Structures are given as C-alpha cells and as structure tokens.
Amino acid sequence: MGAYIIRRLLLVIPTLLGIMILNFAITQFMPGGPVEQMIARAQGQGDVFENITGGVGDIETEMSNANSSYPGAQGLDPRYIAELEKRFGFDKPPLERFLNMMWNYLRFDFGESYFRKITVVDLVLEKMPVSITLGLWSTLIAYMVSIPLGIRKAVRDGSKFDTWTSGAIIVAYAVPGFLFAIFLVIMFAGGSYFRIFPLRGLVSPNFEELSMWGKVVDYLWHITLPVLATTISSFAVLTLLTKNSFLDEIKKHYVITARAKGLAENRVMYGHVFRNAMLIVISGFPALFISVFFSGSVIIEYLFSLDGLGRLGYEAALQRDYPVVFGTLYTFSLMGLIVGIITDITYVFVDPRIDFESRG
Fold first, then answer.
1. How far is residue 73's CA from residue 65's CA, in Å, rounded to a whole number?
2. Cα separation values, 85 from 41, 66, 77, 321, Å
3. Which residues make beta-bridge pairs with 195?
4. Backbone angles phi, psi at 196, to 5 degrees
C-alpha cells in the first residue's frame, strides 16, 4: 500500500502541472485582461468589454489613433500603461511568468489580489467558512440520507415504497438546485408566503452577543435553506447509485449461498453485501465534495447572499483577477487529487481484500 501511495503522490505533480498549463494558456487568449480592466477604470468606464465588443469601425479608429495595443487606452500616458504592465507582470514573456508563478505556488505563495489589496491566502481564508458550511453539511446529509434509503429501496425493490420514493427522487434529480433554491426563497424566506428563514448571510448581525446555544441555533437557522438547495441533486444521485449497487450485489451467488446457510438478513446485508456495494458509492465522494465545496455553490451563494469561495472564483474570473483565479484553481485541484488518494485508502478499510500493490 505504501508504494502505491507514493506512486499516486508522484502522479499528482504532472497532473497538477497539466491543469495549470492548460488554464494559463487559455487566459493568454482571453480579452479584457487586468491591464485593460485598469485602463477602463482609469477612464471611468464601467465595463472593459464595451471597448472589446464595440463596433468594428470604432475599434479600427481607436487602434489607428492609439500608440498602445490595448483598446480604449487613448489619452493615457504610455508610461502609465507600462507601469500597469510591470505591476501585473505582463512586461515579461508568458513562459517566464508561468515558471515564476509555479515556483511561488510550490511554496504556497499565491501573491496578492490585483484589485482587492489582500493576499490570496487571506482572501480564501476569509471566504472559507461559507464553503466549508455548504460543502460539509451537504455532503454529510446526502450520505446519511442516501445510503440508508438506497439500501431500503434495494431490499424492497418493486414494492410501493420503492415506486413512490423513486418518483420523488426522479423529480429531485430533474429540478436544478438553483430552481429549488428560488422555490425555497419564495416559500420560506419572505419571497411571497412565509418568512421563516433568513435570506442573507451565514449568521445574524448580533451573533457575537448571543449565548453558545443561541449561536448554534442562529447558525443552523441561517444554513437550512442553502444546504437543502445544495443537497437536493446529490441526494438523488447517491440514492439511486446506492440502490443499483446493492441490487447488483444481492443477485450474486455468494449472497444466495449465505442466505441458504441460514444467515440472518442483516448479517447478509451488512456483513457481506455492504462492503462490496459501497465501493462505487465511496468512489464518488471526491467529485461530490469538491463540486459542492467550490464550483457547485456559486448560484446558491448568490441567491442567499453568501460570500464563499464559489462566488469569489466567479467574480475573480470576471474581473480577470489572475492571482485569485490561479491560486484557487491550484489549491482545489491539489485538494481534489489528494482526496482521490484518500478515497483509495478508504477502499482498503471498507474491503481489505483490495490490493493496490498488485497493480502494475
């Protein structure tokens, strides 16, 4: 097992490098970079993309009158443009910028945000509580509900319970998370009917003044709706995955043999079937956790006015805040790869018969 873990850790390096190279190359061809953003702000323009997507004749006129390669830079001192390029590091060749970036990232030095005057690490730590809340609670609830329900559906396959729960699960899977979030807001957050849950923030403004019990209740009160909205689709997928996995195992000969020997049903299900059927469920944990923890919560964070990592990454991409974009990309890519290794280790605990060392 030790040799396998070392091999997987070594594979993290080229995988992570490939991810960063691909994304860095894409950004080189994207219009509206940070220099153009600052030029637009200096000229009092609200959106740099208005210059980029303007009429063909206007752009040709601007480009013929400008000494700079940036649309909309007319009237600005060329020295100011040069200072901007130096500030953002665009006075260096792309290869040199990429190598410098990766050398800093290896030391977990992600630099400072272009537009927020705060280091990327501090910015991520500031937004982390919201994403941890959505990611951990959603993943925990999805697994706690889906696994027992999926097992129950597999045992009672074809019954009325299986039929009506399957209908509810299909509806839950078909409804997008953001649409379910809008429904929750309308129904329970003062949208049109009831005002039971708050619509904004992770805690109340007077959170620090509350007792310990009051803080727990206030925290749970605020996260109920966003966690439900985030959990709905993953819950449906996990339930069906668990059911189908258990059905495949139940039909195998070793289960029939175990029942023929007179073993109790619980002993058959949880002593033999469970560890085999759960392997495929466990394998989906890294993707589920990372998607909910980072990218999957962007729309939910906007709807419930939560300032988390998903919203941070989205806004950074729009602003071309490259240190934030690449810093978060590097961090969560690394996290996803490490969680994948942890998942393989979990396989061994679930089923000790698995031997990764035998793999070539």
1. 10
2. 15, 17, 13, 14
3. 189
4. -95, -40
* Mean per-residue pLDDT, 349-356: 65
CB atoms within 10 A of CB 274: 16
Maximum separation of any 2 CA atoms in the chain, in Å: 90
Tell me the C-alpha to C-alpha distance, in Å, between residue 249 and each of 151, 218, 252, 253.
11, 44, 5, 9
pLDDT band of 62, cuts 50, 70, 90: very low
In whole angstroms, give the CA distance from residue 71 to residue 74: 8
Length of the chain counted residue by residue: 360
Q: What is d(CA 264, CA 258) in angstroms, rounded to the nearest whole number?
A: 9
Tell me which residue of 140, 128, 145 sits closest to 297, measured CA to CA: 128
Which of these ranges, 72-81, 170-179, 236-245, 268-277, has the smallest mean pLDDT?
A: 72-81
Q: Which of 134, 164, 139, 135 is closest to 238 using CA atoms?
A: 139
Helices 285-293, 212-250: crossing angle, 10 deg rounding: 150
Between 160-174 and 212-250, two packed helices, what is the crossing angle to 10 degrees?
Answer: 120
Would you state the pLDDT for residue 65?
41
Model confidence at 58: pLDDT above 50: no
CB atoms near residue 272 (< 10 Å): 19
Helix (H) or strand (E) run with residue 132 in it? helix 120-155
pLDDT of residue 351: 64
Question: How far is Cα 136 from Cα 313, in angstroms, rounded to an integer?
Answer: 19
| Structure token pair of residue 143 | 């697994």
Task: Say how far apart CA 11 and CA 16 lie, in whole Å.
Answer: 9
Q: Give the domains, in start order, of the chain with CATH numbers.
A: 33-106 (no CATH), 120-358 (1.10.3720.10)
Q: Residue 254: count other Cβ atoms within 10 Å of its Cβ.
A: 12
d(CA 323, CA 121): 10
The two tokens of residue 117 are 């005057």
